[in-house]
Write a structure and sequence with these properties.
Elements lengths: L8 H13 L4 E7 L19 H13 L5 E6 L3 H18 L7 E2 L11 H11 L1 H9 L11 H17 L5 E7 L1 H10 L5 H4 L7 E7 L2 E6 L2 E5 L1
Helix pairs in contact: 2-3, 4-5, 6-7
């Protein structure tokens, strides 16, 4: 039976809007894809798309973006992330009757930290997601199999800050990725362990922003942290 994840789009959008109301102008969002199909066949995993419910969630998220913002979308190359980005685009453009730039694929939004997929997958299946994550974060997994977790969080933070730096006026960078790209940031940057903070929900996001020439990240479960 597929694991049931909560929808966190409201929490993500509320976090963005609070920053906008506080006068923040430059924001980048690292967000998990929407609700998806699951499979027991590992080879099919990259091709799993969104459920009908997940499609509606992504569309509604796009429609909820304030009309004076222009999403600049990028995503992982996995189907569920591409589809989420497309439907965020569709929701925004239909609601506001305006076009935006097409989604771009970015390696940093993929599971780039997995170095040896043939060794990683059996280990994940043996330990289960939660124990594998804890072993990874506690540096108990060979770095020839998966990248150092703190380095992974640093690389993701740097990527999200670069998105902010390249924004044009009234743009917001929306980067559609995976829950495992978000976990290291919650663990090492925000101090949120997954055992207590819980799973990363669908459309749950970490928000990066610039204020007074400094860069921060924040999340609905944690206050802003200076990078």
């Amino acid at each position: 039976m597929a694991k049931k994840y909560e929808l966190k789009s409201t929490q993500t959008m509320d976090t963005i809007n609070l920053l906008l109301d506080d006068g923040i102008k430059k924001i980048s969002l690292l967000i998990r894809h929407s609700a998806r199909f699951f499979t027991k066949e590992t080879r099919l995993e990259p091709f799993m798309g969104l459920t009908d419910e997940g499609k509606a969630f992504a569309f509604d998220f796009g429609a909820a973006i304030r009309p004076d913002l222009y999403p600049r979308l990028c995503s992982s190359f996995m189907g569920r992330c591409i589809e989420t980005a497309f439907l965020i685009d569709k929701g925004f453009t239909k609601k506001n009757n305006q076009s935006i730039d097409h989604n771009c694929l970015e390696r940093t939004l993929t599971p780039f930290y997995v170095k040896d997929i043939e060794k990683a997958v059996p280990l994940i299946e043996k330990l289960g997601n939660d124990l594998f994550l804890r072993n990874w974060f506690d540096n108990r997994i060979d770095e020839r199999i998966i990248e150092n977790p703190e380095k992974t969080s640093d690389l993701l933070s740097e990527f999200m800050v670069e998105q902010i730096k390249s924004l044009k006026k009234n743009q917001i960078a929306i980067c559609v990725s995976h829950d495992w790209n978000i976990f290291p940031l919650k663990e090492f940057k925000l101090g949120l362990q997954h055992e207590t903070a819980g799973d990363v929900g669908y459309l749950e996001g970490i928000v990066f922003f610039e204020k007074d020439d400094q860069y921060y990240m924040t999340h609905y479960q944690a206050g802003p942290v200076l990078l």
